[in-house]
Amino acid sequence: MKFLLHYTALILALFLMAGCATSKSFAKKGAKLEEAGMMSEAAQMYYTSLQKNRGNVDAQIGMKKTGQVVLNKMLQEFVTMKTFDDKRKAVAEYQAAERYVNQVKSLGVNLEIPDFYRTDFEEVKHLLINELYDEGISLLDDGKYQDAEARFNEIAKLDPEHPEASDLAAIAYCEPLYKKGMESFELEYYRAAHDNFQMVMSRIPTYKDAPQYRQEALDLGLFTVAMLPFENSTIRNGLDAKVEAYALEALTGVDDPFLKIVDRDNIELILEEQKLGLSGVIDEETAVSVGELIGAQAILTGTVLGYNREEGDAIRTEREAYEQYKVKKLNKETNKYYYETKYRKTNYDELSRRNRVTVSFQYKLISLKTGEILKSKIVDREVTDQATWAEYDGELNTLYPARSNGVSLNARARQNLHNQMSANRNPRSAEDLTNDAFQQVSRDMKGDIAQLLKELVK
Known about the structure:
Blueprint: H1 2-17, H2 23-35, H3 39-52, H4 57-83, H5 87-105, H6 115-141, H7 145-158, H8 165-186, H9 190-203, H10 210-221, E1 223-227, E2 231-232, H11 239-252, E3 259-262, H12 264-273, H13 287-294, E4 298-311, E5 315-331, E6 336-367, E7 373-391, E8 399-403, E9 406-407, H14 411-421, H15 430-456
Parallel strand pairs: 1-3, 1-4, 2-4
Antiparallel strand pairs: 4-6, 5-6, 5-8, 6-7, 8-9
């Protein structure tokens, strides 16, 4: 094994050298090392040479000779481990030898493992598998499932066709989880039970009665929330329906199998069957009786407490800039006219418009078993959007930005100024901002209720 580790380290070192020399130079180095009796090192040089050029005949001959020497040392290590009855190391040494043969073969050189080594290996492997099997069964009986699983997995790697190894490894994995699931179920920790049974079924879908107990844990731990129609305390119509729609969308998106949402339509249908109306029926005092009617553990109520929207007018601010112009002049020496570029101060208008929406929303989650308020929270949100642009009455291609000491000829600054002229002039509408605000409120509520559910259903 030490030899194998040394060999691997040399391989890595040579990979780093490989980009700096040719196939022929590596073959020459290999020949010199071979002459010096350093067969392992020589084999590495020949191997690297063939990686660069598989057609290098000198490297092929050297690899064949020195590679066989390296292989024989590995096989001898296998024999040594077998003699000392260290089956694991013996098997590992032989497998390393086989990998080396395949590695060299990939470069076109065939090394030989005599058949008697294969026979000895199969014998040692068979004995090792029997030992691992007996150990695994004993560990399984003793309830040491993790160690048992490791033994059976080791068998499966040694013999993928073994008739029992994979199944026993799966059992060793599933059994402790199944037991934990049953313990949690008895303690009425339905989420923990459900999760353990789910892990069992991910390995063996029909393991014992895990499917039945998983479903029963889900049924017993299911937390049904009935969403009542939300209320609106503001003078703007329709806000209750809007936030209710976003809340329903958010809550039905909670990734928790123990949460079930009963929406307004289903509640009305159930109450209608009982000859009851929805309005005026449910409050904190009548929550328990209504809960029995609609089969829920809690009701969710909500009220839009406040709403304000501001759609701002454009605010105009005058900004300084420079206008480029040309002046025709006579060159007295040549008596020819030319144009001189000059800049004069001018102004443009910078405009901005902002829309703003603020909402205040309160929700309550009320237990239908006790009438207790499980969660009550007021969520405030402000959403704004602003558009800023510029207007100029003159020729845009003559306009330059100003700086502290005059005109700025910086190309980027000028491009930014020109971009302002074509910038968007309309902030997002108050209606869009209202939708965003209620979406944020709903996401906040979703997170709180999801966290609360994990505390209620353990």
